[in-house]
Amino acid sequence: MSNSANSGLNIRKLRVEYSSGQPALGEVNLQVPEHGIVTIIGPSGSGKSTLLRAVAGLLPRYEGDLLFNGASVHHKETLIGLVPQNYGLLPWKTVQANIAIAMRITRRSEKSRQERDRLVRHWLKSMGISDLADRYPLSLSGGQQQRVAIARAFAVLPTIMLLDEPFSALDAITREALQQLFLDNWLEHPATTLFVTHDVEEAILLGQRVIVMPADKQDHPAIIENETVFGMKHEDKRSSAAFFEQTKVIRKVMQEKW
Length: 258
Ligand SMILES: Nc1ncnc2c1ncn2[C@@H]1O[C@H](COP(=O)(O)OP(=O)(O)OP(=O)(O)O)[C@@H](O)[C@H]1O
Ligand SMILES: [Mg+2]
Description:
Residues 9-240 form the ABC transporter domain. InterPro entries: AAA+_ATPase (IPR003593), ABC_transporter-like_ATP-bd (IPR003439), ABC_transporter-like_CS (IPR017871), ABC_transporter_ATP-bind (IPR050166), P-loop_NTPase (IPR027417). It is a single chain. This protein is an alpha/beta fold. The protein folds into two domains: 1-78 and 160-258, Rossmann fold (3-Layer(aba) Sandwich); 88-158, no CATH class. The protein has nine helices and ten strands. The chain has helices at residues 48-56, 95-106, 113-126, 142-155, 172-188, 200-206, 227-230, 234-237, 241-257; strands at 9-15, 28-32, 37-41, 63-68, 71-72, 80-83, 160-164, 192-196, 209-212, 222-225. The site of adenosine-5'-triphosphate has 12 residues, from helix 1. The site of magnesium ion has 4 residues, from helix 1.
């Protein structure tokens, strides 16, 4: 992994105001190493989704610089995959069509229909939802829709992957299983990733760096290095002393920032 100052995703002096004129987030300065994962936690309304929307190119106005390897992140070569907070699936298309359409639109590969179908099956299998291929999103549970949205995000092989609380509203066991599936997929296709969660433990388990967004928008986010836990075998993390220590560190920062 390269760590030079310009590599990966660089967010410099990002400020966003919606039409009200109130800041939507505390100014963000952040580097996500290329092929790295940074997790973001913060109270409701602290601007986590706004930060992802800015990087995704969905905001008409913002101040500051959003760079990938030194060039604008919105350069057309940089494909950005977003898993929005509400999953963003097309309700009138089946699960497999949702994934196939995303692959076609992003033109990551000019593949034959057969090849695309094969890849769709591969990604469904990788998220443990092969049996849902012909279902429609609104007939699925929230957790199943989340799996489809993640399969779709990986299927387009994005340069940058943005996930907005992708495992919210899941029971603890399902959530742990999905964290593992997500990491397995990510290790095979390590997109440069920003992952929003409201769960401290999830932030520590999945991020090599953890950002704590402040409640006060005059304040800045805190950045906590987490390489020690990140570098461990995933199944060993939760029971490790380093994980326990990091939980204490981050809870203390949260008390200061929230
Ligand atoms: N389209 C919009 N127009 C005006 N204000 C907005 C808009 N979207 C978000 N905001 C405001 O910007 C701030 C940040 O919102 P954002 O949705 O980014 O927070 P969040 O951290 O993702 O919250 P949550 O944890 O509830 O998802 C909030 O004060 C919110 O009210
Ligand atoms: Mg949000």
